[in-house]
């Protein structure tokens, strides 16, 4: 079988006619920067997420950096961030002269918790970057309540979980009625990426910021456009970060299919979980009660130091896998002198040595998944009589 970790070509084939027409329309128009498709996409994403404002930008890392710039943080201010995440979440903090404070994550959901955040708070703490990792939300109600008590901003890194819904419990902060909000719309600013492999991916780089705050929306727009509201009148130092028109056209088409893509991913995840349940030394992903899971990744945990051997075995069987992330951020050389740890980071360390992501995309077939599951079961069941429960 020609199993792909991500099958973007197969996904394109199904919408080829519609996609080609959208791209060709931009090419023929000659409006490659700030063409009408950009505004159309921003409005469509607002409607999809429920965010009051969507500000497209060049990529997800830009989105994080611009978000932190809009909050007016000063050099030396501390920003709490999970130690188990992609480097961009912390990189944006360091680039602005801020101090990343790395805290540990929940061992089952891989996400920040209010308890771990509180362990990292100091008098210098000004913000939290809450990363919704692999496809499901952090438990945002206690995080927002904690932020309110300590007068902290919350920036959501929603690059991997666009479309996930958080069930807000009845609390004094949100009122008595239980409702759902999409990730990226709960904190002060939400950031996302349209990197091609994301659940909503373009055919190049792209990103966006979301907020329900009118003043923050104006600041985000201004900073992303060279610090100007009016052309050639620069109020603050900004940057040049735009979603180009071709990418907006691509995303306009794909956004219409995002719910279908999510259902396909959830169906694939269910097949994996049903097939892999019952194996000792292997933990399937935990679905938390307060969030839907859109399965940007299907990430298992392999115990007893068997992860790398399993990865090698699967590669020999023609099955690609990925390790997100093999080196926890507290051990990355670039953060050695600019970051501090809020407390013990033992979970992040353990996860870096045990996680393994299986192929996950909208074009996975039942036959491919049956092959993958059977090979994994064969590997573990052949290890010892105790391999299955």
Written overview of the protein:
The protein has 13 helices and 15 strands. The protein has 389 residues and is of the alpha/beta class. An eight-stranded mixed sheet has the order 1-9-8-5-4-2-3-14, with helices on both faces. A three-stranded antiparallel sheet has the order 12-13-15, with helices on one face. A two-stranded antiparallel sheet has the order 6-7. β2 (78-82), α5 and β3 form a beta-alpha-beta unit. α10 runs parallel beside α13 (366-381). The model has no long low-confidence stretch (mean pLDDT 94).
Could you name the ranges where pLDDT drops below 50 across 5 or more consecutive residues? none
Shape annotation? globular
Order of helices and strands: HHHEHEHEHEHEEEEEHEEHHEEHEHEH
Helices, by number, come to 13
Fraction of residues in β-strands: 15-25%
Summarize the structure.
The chain has 389 residues and is α/β, with parallel strands linked by helices. Helix content is 38%, strand content 16%.
Secondary-structure topology with pairs:
Blueprint lengths: L7 H7 L1 H14 L6 H14 L3 E5 L2 H11 L7 E5 L5 H8 L3 E5 L10 H7 L4 E7 L8 H11 L2 E5 L7 E4 L10 E4 L6 E5 L13 E5 L2 H11 L3 E3 L2 E2 L10 H11 L2 H19 L5 E2 L14 E5 L4 H10 L23 E2 L4 H7 L2 E4 L7 H16 L8
Parallel strand pairs: 2-3, 2-4, 3-14, 4-5, 5-8
Antiparallel strand pairs: 1-9, 6-7, 8-9, 10-11, 12-13, 13-15
